[in-house]
Hints:
- By secondary structure, the protein is an alpha+beta fold.
- Among the domains are: about 115-225, Hypothetical protein, domain 2 (Endonuclease III, domain 1, Orthogonal Bundle); about 240-280, no CATH class.
- About 40% of the residues lie in helices and about 10% in strands.
- The protein is built from 15 helices and 5 strands.
- The chain has helices at about 20-25, 70-75, 80, 95-105, 115-125, 130-145, 160-165, 170, 180-190, 190-195, 200-210, 215-225, 240-250, 255-265, 270-280; strands at about 10-15, 35, 40-45, 50-60, 60-65.
- It has a 5-stranded antiparallel beta sheet with strand order 1-5-4-3-2.
- The N and C termini lie far apart (about 55 Å).
Amino acid sequence: MPSRADEPLSRVLDGSRIGGLRATLRPISLLWGRFDGEGWWKPLRTPAGPATLLVARRGDGVTGTAWGPGRTWVLDRLDAIVGLHDVDGFEPADERIARLYRRNPSRFGRTGAMFEALVQAVLEQKVTGAEAKTALRAITHAYSEPAPGPRARLMLPPDPARLAGSRYHDLHDLGVERRRSELVLRLASEAHRLERLADLPAAEAGRRLAPIPGVGRWTIAETLVVTHGDTDAVSVGDYHLKHQVVWHLAGRERGTDQEMLELLEPFRPHRARVVRLLEALPTYPRRGPRMPVRRFSSL
């Protein structure tokens, strides 16, 4: 007799092949994933329906347990989520980077969930992290429902079908100005097509995203690192990243995107891997003005 959708299914992987599990999973958690004493919880909307995944080390193995109609879909992709599809081969000539990598040998996981990653990236465009999280939480509360499984108060990412039926001022009331609101609604209306991009190589998925107005290089890179585990995606246009990279690789307090790309060029196709290593270091000296926090719902 087939198991019911509310009963969990589990899959165990060889834990010896998976190093730095927390460091691998944290970057793909987005707003809706979290760690607790049991492990890493991640709710997802899948083609088979909603699912909740719990990943945890158990003895010598890594166990994935999933609930909901999409639980089989999620467990079939557990290897990719925990980074086992990350083809490494990273042997940097720069001894500083090699030393960092020996201390932090995390892999790049991939969720395959395009819409949720795009929505978070869009809502993070040109605003502070606090503003983006506030808007994401408000949209999740308005356009989602509890995730399946035993974790109380764990919410699924926003439902694209519900979002697609809204108007821009509905999101404006939740703290998102018109430009980003309209882009989120457009992505919601095309969510089914966008999800199929997860099956393409990262470079091709990026080319398919590029013609969408409002989806630029920064948004594409932020998305593909999560959905495809793209080890070479660089977030050009980031408020802080160029300074962080230039400070650690060249010793200068301020830098440009062009300088950042030139410094990262020798590390292809692992530029994102180097960026992740540098982001774990103490931040660069910040002497300039900080980005102000705004309340779009009051404008």
